[in-house]
Structures
1.
Amino acid sequence: MPPSEATRLFRARTVVPVSRPPIADGGVAVREGEILDVGSWNDLIRGHPGAIHEDLGECILLPGLINAHCHLDYTMMRGALFGGGSFSAWIQRLNAMRRSLDQRDYLDAIAAGESELRRWGCTTVLNIESFPELVPFLPDSSIRIWWFLEVMDVRSRLESSEALAGAIHFFEKAGEHRGGFGISPHAPYTVSHDLYALSASFAGKYNLPLCTHLAESDEELAMFLKGEGALHEFLRSIGRPMDDCGGKSPVQAVLGSGILPEGSLLVHMNMITGADKDLLRASAGMYPVIHCPRTHAFFERPTFDLEFYRESGIPVLLGTDSLASNEDLNMFAEMRAMQSSFPGLDPCEILAMATTRPAGAIGLEGRLGELAPGAMADFIAIPDQGEGSESATGVSERILANRMPPAVWIAGRR
């Protein structure tokens, strides 16, 4: 059998499939970038005679982590902006920095962000791409990136078809990349109802996932619900029509109108009203919510209403957001921040927020975010001396506590 087709067996002290309990003295069988088998080491040896063996030693082997929300374009902004205070002031500072950068700066930022993600065990990222014209110039990615093309018509409310023309051109020219593509109408304060509707139609036509920022700040809530506040005044000053403000919350304006397809990813969802909760309960499970714990803390926002989402059957996923509002792109640190905010939450559930749940949200349940036959062979290994419980909760606790860059395999290769 040619070496490229040989089955390889990887052994670890503990294997964590995520979708099933941990396996002591376990391993995975891999061939041609796909997992063939997962089980005890002895069973794998018997079941795959002639396979190449690789003993990883006293470590935990688990699926590569999935970052459900990131802006790689802004990797160069680490430490450049300050949190707290006015959200609209932060947006204006961000936009001023954006204007000072050129194409080379953004290409370098994306490459640096991708490298940082991989270093910390993230093998898949759902990235919002504000400058789609950059993608054809990027080298092949070392991780799986889902490029969500960002669209908006904030200033003059361009014809929606005109705003989406760039998206169509982008998908025609982007070519093949490891990962996939999606569409991201930015937020209700920068996207008209018509553009939301056309984005949804576009996502359905091309079978693309869709995500949008929603209910992110108190200023957004005041803008839509009361027609006032700093964000309202800033957007009015740059020419945004404000006739959709006053009366409805952002959640009601978007979800209440029925314009988003089922499965759309809702990013942030920090500021929700009682009426919003009624609306979300009625559509429970239809719209996954992406929470970015350290960005949430950066803006000093009220406690994220995790209990409501859990009780309502709404899946919560984890992301890092950008380095304009976070200190790094380390998903282990993001999971620990979630644990710190919600100490009673089972570490197994937090791990699922960075593995199986985001995989399911982009239609790749069983293919990403878990170690299982038929899954892509994306996995990581972290040191483990086995101190503590060997239960799923005990092992997950040690995973969250990891502060060492893991060994990383994508499609079975380091």
2.
Amino acid sequence: MKTVWITGASSGFGAASARWFAQRGWQVGAWARRLDRLESLRREILEANPKASVWIDAVDVRDAAAVQSAWDRRPFEAVDVLVNNAGLALGKESVEEGLLEDWDEMIDTNIKGLLYATRAIAPTMVARGSGHIINVGSLAGREAYPGGNVYSATKFAVDGLTEGMRLDLTPKGIKVSQIAPGMAKTAFSDVRFHGDLQKAEAVYRGMQPLSPEDVAEVIGYMASAPAHVNLADVLLMPAAQTSSTVVRRQE
């Protein structure tokens, strides 16, 4: 039985990915800050498949010591796939008006959190000579847009880190990939606008965004590809989107 480890698994792409893998017989390790959400997710998965194997743990990936401690108490010896999914956007102000606390949280989660999880888990893959790391980037990591300044910078960093990790780990038998979604309807915009649901809904007005399940399906496909195949870099966008700033909307 293969094992996948997913960060930021309490909602959005992470929760959808946990469901996808569990439905197909994978053991699932799920990390997130919100234990209640993880418990709800595990109940949902087990109700659908009582034989599923799901391990949950409340972990803030911004805390390197907490990440390592959580990894040390894992129930699965070997992990085949790590999905570095934890991430968020906060605010959409012009850079001279940005909130420092928002910047810190994005940098600490989107960049340092990815590194902390990778640093804890990758050595066990290297020791086995096999494994796969899938980083969740963003179209915003290819194209900046007004108000996206620091968020885009963190996702540009994920893009660069993915390439660097691939150079380091491919010789050691580890596949490294990135999926970069465009507009997807999750709690992303709710969080970005600090709970202003009107602003969040306006992001998707008149168009059909990706769903978490769309993204999870592609992550699952990447993880399930034959050993000699690596979908190294996947840009996934809704059909109505052509760039970070151009979207076809129907009024």
3.
Amino acid sequence: MNIFIISILRDLKMAFRNPSSFLNPLMFFVISISLFPIAISPEAESLSNMAPGIIWVITMLSVLLSLNTLFHYDFDNGVLEQIIISHHSLKLILLAKTLAHWILSGLPIIILSPFLGMALFLDSKSIVILVFTLIIATPCLSLIGSIGASLVVGIKNSGMLLSLLILPLYIPILIFATSAISHSQSNLAFDGQFYFLGFILIISLMVTPFLSALSLKISLE
């Protein structure tokens, strides 16, 4: 646990020394959602119907933008090789790095989402469901994204390749999250969507650290 906590604190300190690594995706999230009322329609009914899809698509893209920084700094400094050959659990360290990434990318999105939901005329019940879907599913975005980031860690300008690898895996999360919010707007049951999102989160926690560790070893070899 000491190594786990130290790894999280180290990644957070590194990120705050280079704040653009997490501020740029966050600004992209806020600005992109703010432009939709101008580009589509200022009517409350139209925006509220499209709000779940808008917020979740921009959330996925924002997390994807921040994934390039997950391992690249440690790779450039030679720290990744030291982590791999150390006697500490590589899977635990990668899980700590992924948690730090979520704190910097997913948590601010969760905090800002109610305000942006109100800007898109979501009702209070739908905003609560939106926040809960983000709490459950944004960790999945970081966990699944860590697999792609570990595969392309040694490739320069790998943003497009990372998108092609990760975006198809994000589609089930997008479907269930937006469906839960849309069902709440229509006063329909949305328990099933939350069960599926919870299942994806559990599977991601169990599987992705092992896959990320294996992918990282393959990339560095």
